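Subject: for your reference before the review

Hello V.,

The reviewers asked for a structural picture of the protein, and I figured it would be easier to keep everything in one thread rather than splitting it across files. Below is the amino acid sequence we used in the manuscript, unchanged from the supplementary table.
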Amino acid sequence: MTNFVQASRFPTDSFNLLKYLQGLPFDSEAVSYYATLSAADTVRSSRNTISLRRSDGTDWTVEELVAMQFSYVKELAESVAGEKVTDVVVTVPPFYTQAERDAVVDAIEIAGLRTLALVNDGTAVAINYAMTRTFPEPEIHIIYDAGASAIRTTLVEFSTVESTGKGKPKVHTQVNVLSSGFDRRSGGAELDRRLVKVLVEDFMNKHQVDITKDKRAMSKFRKEANKLKAILSANNEAVSTVCDTSRNVPPDLQSEPFRSRVHSRTSTIVERSSGLNSKSLPATSKSDSPSLFIRVWPRRA
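And here is what came back from the structure prediction:
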């Protein structure tokens, strides 16, 4: 989760959205795309992967930064459990390549933990959902997961089966993942990026100054865009105020991006994310198919 207050004060010392960079070579398209989402400086590591550079010149590989997150989670888990945590099962997006999965495992090991398994996040949600429920009749669910970096859908069938081994038959819940879909460029960060473009255009039209090279100012616009996203999700209009954008231009911007105006810039995200569900539906079109449910999985980031 991005700390926009911290990022606006120390833009080159705040590293967020690392999921975009894990396990990728420095020459990949993800690096140029990441530059539109973050003010952090990316540099080539000794392994030709991606590192991020602090303002004091210190370089951290993506795996080292993710390991710091794992270490923090480890401390929280140990404080709650009252015992040491050494083994972990970690969820990853279904679109991760083997290189990206290996990068996650490297980060886990750097944090002093041992990987028991990597599980697709949609599968993990399905298992968690089934743990406290029974399914007298088969059910098919679409799990819709809209996160910061991507949107994922997972088509899952829940059913009840009886064991056929020796002794008294036992009833078990069966979770069968039928398919999954994803769009790596339709998450909350992409929505923020498009909102930032609206604010920057307003600023440039007002002051006739190119602000896009000012990392501190762009971080302030990203902070404001994230706030506007929440406001415009429930209102038709909102007033945006960005103060102290740059030392070289007048100190503030006041803009009124109406919801319809913003929607015209972001409608393709809605269309692409809706298409993920429709692609999964043909598998349930038969007349004898189980009941279909759509579950929206809440996200904190």
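For the response letter, the relevant points are probably these. The first strand starts at residue 41 and ends at 44. Residues 133-182+269-296 form one domain.

Happy to draft the paragraph if you're swamped.

O.
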